[in-house]
Predict the structure.
Amino acid sequence: HGWLSHILAFRVAAGWSRDVEAERAEALREADETVRLGFDNCDALWLVIAAYWAAGSPERSIQLYERSIQRRPDIFVTMPFTMGVAGVGYAQAGRVEEGLALIRRFEIEHPNDEWGAVWTRVFVGYAELCRGNYARAADVLVNPPSEHDGMCRVVALMCLQRDGEALAQYSSLRKANPAIALGHYVDYFKTFSADRAVGTELTNGLSRLRDKVKTAGAAP
């Protein structure tokens, strides 16, 4: 249930779903079932904490994280990745400094670990995007590990008026996935942050990119 919720939620986030609303609802149902069955299982709960915010419910990520550590303060001692994942939920819900503090705690657990370093910068990029620090987001998301992370950098660059860099980044993503759903991302970033002003900036940035892509004669 945990892995299914995680996969469905990130299919929704990345625009790979053919029915976004149906898969979002299914992701949340599977997440709820995971919590019911595995409320004391750290390996299951980190998946769900990520799935909740990826499916558009960061508040539920926060609630689950806080409830879990209240019941068992050491529950995630063997899964520190959870702190980074929960940090994104805090950032998306508007509690950016709390989110960054958790991400830094995760980084401390993996100070010389390539895996930890990659995900630390991805999580920091998400958090900085949530509060409109586009320069920092674009900086840490250089060489993004996924299409979703690449689009986070693209939208940050568009908000910085660095259109040429954004187009180059988008073109590299399209080489990997010619069917990239730019229209989906325009909608997705509306609610990426609890700060509606940031959401508007992100959406306007990607809308400008879509216009540029259309003008260039490529499929949007």
In short: The mean pLDDT is 94. The first helix runs from residue 2 to 14. The two ends are 34 Å apart (CA to CA). DSSP finds twelve helices and no strands in the chain.
